[in-house]
Amino acid sequence: MGRPREHGEPTRERLLLAAAALSAREGWDAVSVRRVAREAETTTRAVYALFGSKRGLEEALHEEMFARLLELMRAIPKTDDPRADLLELRHAYRNWATERPDRYAALMRFVGPRAGSRSPEGLAAARAATAELREAFARCAEAGLIDAADLEALAIQWRAIGHGLAEFENAGVITDGDETWRTVLTAVIEGHAAARPPAAA
């Protein structure tokens, strides 16, 4: 029999959460192997054994974040009502953002031209999650519910507004649970509704 693993999944999870929390509070530059180990109540040896380096820790956090988002999005069932299905996707993003606020607060580390180290697996998961969202928009467009010319603009707006809603809920500004999310994102969809022909005289 092989030797049992000295550092298992619970230690790995604590280290990822500690790295995310440090990044959220002080920025990624404040994250070090030693500080993460101390926050997670383990040793630097555990960090190196599980991730290899600070960069490996960062890439693992990126992968874990977006793999979880994709998992939540794919768990939303598809029905014959594309508009309702699109609205249901808000639950995936909201749960992703609010189930672990410290992890979500590290999101901007991985977005935009100044993003930090990202893993190939994390990038693949992020692209797949975006594809799920775009497919939901496309189904609405095919059903004549939204303007097909607006799909890319709608995708950007949806993600930006979802991020703002998540930040406000995690900060305690939004306190009515899902109600604000539903109201705001419904308004976004209605704002991109396909033009209807005038009624016959």
Strand content: under 5%
Major β-sheet profile: none
Radius of gyration computed on alpha carbons: 20 Å
CATH architecture of the largest domain: Orthogonal Bundle
Total domains, how many?
Answer: 2
The CATH topology of the largest domain: Tetracycline Repressor, domain 2
Number of strands: 0
Helical segment count: 9
Question: What low-confidence regions span 5 or more consecutive residues with pLDDT below 50?
Answer: 197-201
Query: What is the CATH superfamily of the largest domain?
Result: Tetracycline Repressor, domain 2
Shape: elongated
Structural class: mainly alpha
Order of helices and strands: HHHHHHHHH
**Intertermini distance:** 83 Å
Classified by CATH, the class of the largest domain is: Mainly Alpha
Tell me, rounded to a whole number, the average pLDDT.
88
Helix content: 55-70%
What features would you highlight for this structure?
single chain, 201 residues, mainly alpha, Arc Repressor Mutant, subunit A, Tetracycline Repressor, domain 2, 2 domains, 9 helices, disordered C terminus
Question: Your description of this structure?
Answer:
The protein has nine helices and no strands. It is mainly alpha-helical. The protein folds into two domains: 7-52, Arc Repressor Mutant, subunit A (Orthogonal Bundle); 55-191, Orthogonal Bundle (Tetracycline Repressor, domain 2). The longest helix has 23 residues, at 120-142. 33% of the residues are buried.
Task: Lay out the secondary structure.
Elements lengths: L8 H18 L6 H7 L4 H8 L2 H21 L7 H18 L1 H5 L14 H23 L8 H20 L7 H14 L10
Helix pairs in contact: 1-4, 2-3, 3-4, 4-5, 4-7, 5-7, 5-8, 5-9, 7-8, 8-9
